[in-house]
Write a structure and sequence with these properties.
By secondary structure, the protein is an alpha/beta fold. The chain has one domain: Rossmann fold (3-Layer(aba) Sandwich), CATH 3.40.50. The chain is built from 3 helices and 9 strands; from the N terminus they run βαβαβββαββββ. It has a 6-stranded mixed β-sheet with strand order 4-3-2-5-6-7. Strands 1-9-8 form a 3-stranded antiparallel β-sheet, with helices on one face. It binds guanosine-5'-monophosphate and magnesium ion (MG).
Length: 174
Amino acid sequence: MKPLITEKNIRRRIRRLAIEIVNEMGRGEETAVIALLDGSFMFLADLIRELYQLDFPLTVNFIGVSSYQGNTRSSGRLSWYRRPPLSAAERRVLLVDDILDTGLTLNGVQQHLLRQNPTVLKTCVLLKKSKTRSFDNRVDFTGFTIPDVFVAGYGLDMNGRYRELPYIAAMTES
Ligand code: 5GP
Ligand code: MG
């Protein structure tokens, strides 16, 4: 499996990303980090440990969601398999996801959280595919912009496999 992004580059980038987050969000009040399962678990684990090194106060919660295009043309209906355990109301929220592809899922989750009136909602993704999107996602922090290919590793799977890879690989069809 050929790395598209090496373990070393991931580590280095996440360290910078944590600095960017602290610089923009400040250390003051506790931030509710909300991670989208399943693919973001490894990224989250590394990111929060870097944030810890920077004395950034946080709590961690997980949500499980998949999106499907309903009969409406609206921003995508969410199907929860793990609902948000807390309300985002009056909270500083940092939403963490593995990869921004079409943007449908993230868009739905962002809308959902915004309706609860968080004091701040910032979004962080490890990977962003370079393509044009029909969903206008506001992503505040991006780890890497990658070509529009299917990737696995570092938490991301292909049919349930490869999540354990410490690097990110581009999957070629065969
Ligand atoms: P979107 O709603 O942005 O189209 O897709 C969101 C979800 O699809 C991501 O959170 C991720 O779980 C999955 N996904 C999109 N592209 C890839 C990819 O290249 N590799 C893997 N493993 N999952 C992907
Ligand atoms: Mg995902």
